[in-house]
Amino acid sequence: MHEHRAGDVITFRFDSAFPSQEHESLELAQVMNKRLSKGLKLFVVSLAGVEIVKAPDLGVLKGQTEKCREQRGQLVVCCVQSEQVAKALRLSRLDEFLTIRGSETEAFEYLRALP
After folding, report:
1. Dihedral through CA 24, CA 30, CA 33, CA 38, nearest 10?
2. What's the confidence (pLDDT) of residue 7?
3. Residues 24-83: tens digit of each pLDDT
4. Cβ-contact 44, 78 below 8 angstroms
5. How far apart are CA 78 and CA 46, in angstroms?
6. How far apart are CA 38 and CA 35, in angstroms?
7. Burial (CB count within 10 angstroms: exposed 0-12, middle 13-18, buried 19+), residue 21
8. Is the pTM of this model over 0.70?
9. Domains observed in the chain
10. First to last CA, the chain
11. In what order do the strands lie in the sheet with 74-78?
12. β-strands 2-6, 9-13: how paired?
């Protein structure tokens, strides 16, 4: 997992190892919780290059989205390029719960437009 900060937005990027490494999805939760406790509330999770996600990964995305919203923040998932990942999001109905954008640029534009 790679973390990048641009202003008040933190972007997390995963290489193709993300789905096979459960500890990385847990690491995402831990890092996001630390950032939330410091008052940072805007996050982008890029799934570019991720070919498959497992149930624990989806659970972390859902849980962290809920935590962000509770603190009046926002988590945007972007760059869902794999049909398997898109299918997992549809089957779990997370595509209706998560804010999903096609690219990091679109995710940043969405966050910048928030009041």
Report:
1. -110
2. 93
3. 677 889 999 999 999 999 999 999 988 888 888 899 999 999 999 999 999 999 999 999
4. yes
5. 5
6. 5
7. middle
8. yes
9. 2-107 (3.30.750.24)
10. 29
11. 2-6, 9-13, 42-46, 74-78, 99-101
12. antiparallel
Comparing C-alpha atoms, which of 43, 42, 49 is closest to residue 18? 49
Residue carrying structure tokens 């624990």: 56
What are all long-range contacts of 15-21, with beta carbons under 8 Å and residues at least 24 apart? 15/49, 16/49, 16/50, 16/51, 18/47, 18/50, 18/53, 18/57, 19/50, 19/51, 19/52, 19/53, 19/54, 19/57
- pLDDT band at residue 21, thresholds of 50, 70 and 90? low
